[in-house]
Amino acid sequence: MNIDIYCDESRLEFLESADDGFMVIGSLWLEREKRDTLKNKIKALKDTHHYTVEIKWTKISYKMLDFYKELVDLFAEYEDFHFFKAIVVDTAKINFEYHQNNSDIGFYKFYYQVLIHKMNTATQHNEYYVYIDNKTNKIYKPLTMLKGYLNRILYSGEVKLVEPRDSFENLFIQYVDILIGLVSYGYNTSEMRGAKKELYEYACSKLDLPLNQKTAKKARPFNIFEIDLDRNF
Question: Which of 3.10.20.30, 3.30.450.90, 3.30.720.120, 3.30.420.10 would CATH assign to domain 2-226?
Answer without folding.
Answer: 3.30.420.10
